[in-house]
Automatic annotation (TrEMBL):
It comes from Arthrobacter cheniae. InterPro entries: DUF3046. Pfam families: DUF3046. The lineage of its organism: Bacteria, Bacillati, Actinomycetota, Actinomycetes, Micrococcales. This is DUF3046 domain-containing protein.
């Protein structure tokens, strides 16, 4: 997963404003007690960070892949 995909998923699930706050403020145990932003900055895989955020926020698994986007 690319970093841009991570942010698209975050924005789609939580909204653009809240997703940035969540990434900056929510400390996630599955990320070594770091925030998503800290984990990404340290080089963590965006997919692993996304899944850890989903688990921490109780996002239903059926939404982990994001919304369907029609091809152009």
């Amino acid at each position: 997963m690319r970093l841009s995909d991570f942010w698209r998923l975050m924005d789609d699930e939580f909204g653009e404003q809240y997703s940035r706050s969540l990434a900056r403020d929510l400390v996630v145990d599955r990320l070594g007690d770091r925030t998503a932003a800290e984990a990404l900055k340290a080089g963590a895989d965006p997919k692993a960070v996304w899944e850890a955020v989903c688990r921490a926020q109780d996002v239903p698994k059926e939404r982990w892949l994001g919304r369907d986007i029609k091809p152009r």
